[in-house]
Amino acid sequence: MGQTPSLHLLHSCPFCWKVRGLLEHLDVDVEYVAVNGMKIKKDVAFAGDWGKVPVFTDIEGVHHVDSTPILRVIDETYNEGKMANQGDAARQHEWMEWVDTHLSRATVPILYGSLSSALKTTTRISKIENFGFISKRLYAWAGFPIMWGIIARKRVKSDGRKPKKLWHDLLTEFTAAHDAKPFFGGETPDLVDFAAFGYMRSISPYPQFSQLTDHVNGMAWYRRMEATLS
After folding, report:
1. Among 36, 58, 79, which residue terminates a domain?
2. Into how many domains does the chain fold?
3. Domain boundary among 49, 79, 109
4. Which of helix, strand or coil describes residue 213?
5. Are 43 and 35 a contacting pair, CB within 8 Å?
6. Between these two residues, 131 and 63, which has the higher pLDDT value?
7. With pLDDT > 70 as the criterion, what percentage of the chain qualifies?
8. At a CB cut-off of 8 Å and minimum separation 6, what does 155 contact?
9. Is this structure's pTM higher than 0.85?
10. Shared domain check, 132 and 166
11. H helices then E strands: how many in the chain?
């Protein structure tokens, strides 16, 4: 008999939330292992030179990296690959790439798009992640000007839209692709739904999530996704 599967993660990682949603939906018995946010490469060195989270270790002890391939492994292992084979494969592939490109890149601007929002985010992260005493304070107060000044501000300037406007536009485009069905996958969610849900859910612990709640169709879909979790 194999071991209990595990997921090494950061609680603030959008890619980890993608995987967690599917695991919760399928009610998989899994051990969640929080890594130290300042020592990620060291904490997941067992998985090779990937150096990032999430890392999913299956019942045979095989390590899987990169969130979208992990979704497919979990679907195949615990769901007979039903979600991967749901609907048109080309459409699913196209929209998985869209989600992984557009929604993933939109998470940083909304969380770190201004100096004040960046401080709120890094302070919150320092409280929920597995930091040591010193690194907790270092991240909270040294991390926010880096995330805002180097990463988020550049993305906001490059896109030209305010973070809220960007997210609303993306949610409009995504929900329009549902073709009046409850989910992208139709009557039930597929892997694209869980990928998109993970990115949006990763914002939910922060005050900035309030900027998304007045998108009617986006929030209706989000609440339906929440209701599918075990």
Report:
1. 79
2. 2
3. 79
4. coil
5. yes
6. 63
7. 79
8. 105, 108, 109
9. yes
10. yes
11. 11, 4
Cβ-based neighbours of 159, under 8 Å, separated by 6 or more: 109, 166
Query: Hey, what are 213's tokens?
Result: 């709640």
Rg (C-alpha) for the chain, rounded Å, is: 18
Whole-number pLDDT of residue 141:
43
For residue 84, tell me if it sits in a domain. no
Q: Which two tokens stand for residue 137?
A: 């304070």
Q: Does residue 146 form part of some domain?
A: yes
Q: What sign does the dihedral 170-94-192-67 (CA atoms) show?
A: negative
Residue 1, domain member (yes or no): no
DSSP 3-state assignment of 56? strand
Give the range of the structural domain holding residue 35, as residue numbers without chain letter: 6-79
Q: What is the structure's pLDDT at 123?
A: 65
Secondary structure of 167-206 as H, E, C letters = HHHHHHHHHHCCCCCCECCECCCCHHHHHHHHHHHCCCCC
- Asked if 172 and 217 touch (Cβ cutoff 8 Å), the reply is yes
Element (H, E) at 34: strand 31-34
The candidate with the shortest Cα–Cα distance to 177, out of 199, 161, 192, is 192
- In angstroms, the CA 74 to CA 147 distance is 32
Percent of the chain with pLDDT over 90: 63
Same domain membership, residue 219 and residue 151: yes
